[in-house]
Amino acid sequence: MVEDEADIAGLIKHTLERAGHPDVRVVGSGDAALEAIAERPPALVILDLNLPIVSGLDVCRRLRAQPQTARLPIIMLTARTSESDRIAGLDLGADDYLTKPFSLRELAARVRAVLRRAAGGADTAPIVYRGAHLTADFDAVSVHADGRNIRLTRREFELLRCLVGNRNRVLSRERLLQRVWGYERDIETRSVDVHVGRLRSKLGPAAGAQIETVVGLGYRFVE
Ligand code: CA
């Protein structure tokens, strides 16, 4: 937990302890955060953006730039007024954010959700994905490509979630069938191709091209 305001940090620590996370370490600056994380990587970082000297955004940027912490779950705390910070934070790859003032129950719920997703491994999508062309909020079921709102069917949405959740990794058609269609028996692997085709054309040339066909293997969402 990275927060320079001791009162807020104390409240959050107490809340998380009561929610079953006994091992909460509080640090009061970005420098201290980077040191503590390098020393002993946590399961999750709660990162206030408004910090002295090294800002929360800088901490986030540095964590994402290091392979060891590139996928470390991060929940950002932002001021209500700083929409630009929030967008920057999500662009830098934060998993979720909360706007101050927030309810402590809400925070505990977000922590639970982010940890659950992290425990699910690379197979689960982030809550919010923001790339150069694609923005997808998988909780709010909202997808934008180059600023356009994209309407997807449930299947297409699940397909996108699966591809983005496994970004930069190849997924076979069989795997996608299993993940997106479940165990419906009469579905053929060709259906995957059809749905990927539709998804690509809805996303448009730039975001659509991020879904690559890997000949003989399957599909991959590239960043
Ligand atoms: Ca602060």
Describe the structure.
By secondary structure, the chain is α+β, with helices and mostly antiparallel strands. It has 2 domains: 6-120, Rossmann fold (3-Layer(aba) Sandwich); 128-221, Winged helix-like DNA-binding domain superfamily/Winged helix DNA-binding domain (Arc Repressor Mutant, subunit A, Orthogonal Bundle). Helices cover 44% and strands 18% of the residues. The protein has helices spanning 6-18, 30-39, 56-65, 83-91, 104-119, 154-165, 173-181, 189-208, and strands spanning 45-48, 74-79, 96-100, 128-130, 134-137, 142-145, 148-150, 170-172, 211-214, 218-221. The longest helix has 20 residues, at 189-208. The protein is elongated and about 55 Å long. Residues 3-5, 48, 50-51 line the site of calcium ion. Calcium ion binds next to loops.
